[in-house]
Predict the structure.
Amino acid sequence: MPELPEVETTRRGVEPYSRGCTVETLVVREPRLRWPVPDDLPDRLRGQLIEAVERRGKYLLFRTASGSLMVHLGMSGSLRVQDRAEPPLQHDHVDILMHEGHCLRFNDPRRFGSFLWLPHGESHPLLSHLGPEPLSGGFDGDYLYRRSRGRRGPVKSLVMDGKVVVGVGNIYANEALFLSGIHPARAAGRVSRARYGVLAEHIKRVLTSAIEQGGTTLRDFVGGDGKPGYFAQQLFVYGRGGQPCKRCGATLREVRIGQRSTVYCVACQR
DNA sequence: CGCTGACCCTGACGGC
DNA sequence: TGCCGTCAGGGTCAGC
């Protein structure tokens, strides 16, 4: 389940094998992804030079002169550098083949991922309403505070709302709220400006550290057997419901907020 | 506009 | 052993 750090790790992993390369073709074995892969996508990409590999939220953007290939990994997708002679396995839905010989292979058991086209100079409806990047200067406590006023839903839902800020998935929302001492179910509008400052800092910190961690698995990833890893030993709450809080020893509670599993410490988080 | 819940999908897992 | 229900979760969207 890729979160922003895994997507950024993927971006860095595939960039050396795609930027500056020319697309030979796109092989679509299974077009039924989150949205159907457009029929004309291979034609649009064929012969195009990849000028850059960018990321917006959890979308990967392979930029060419005529537009960008938008790839989303969904929650079970991966994009790996592979030998094109390697026979495709189950759920290997798409290959991006380069004239230089490289093959980027997209595997996605649950097919929540997507391959879409963004014409040059246009905005895409899936991108146009996205909030700021969490690691950018535009994202800070004052911003979160402003966006939270009048909102009565849980603060956890606020930070996971892509229209507020992109790329904060369930794992890191749980972790950042724990590190900030904020109860995940607290009404967003009833969290102080100061506490939003703390929360914004922890969101940045936890994402940055996860990206650095992802960097250490980059070689594996390019090699093909890449397990993301999640630096599980560093997780304070996610996946630890019923276990003792690493800070105070109290039993961590698990509830559902917005259909997502939420773990927190009743003593440390208010 | 804000919030809730349904939905897309497959694999893992527990109970019987 | 195998069947079945449940859960997992990124993100969009309909409906209130």
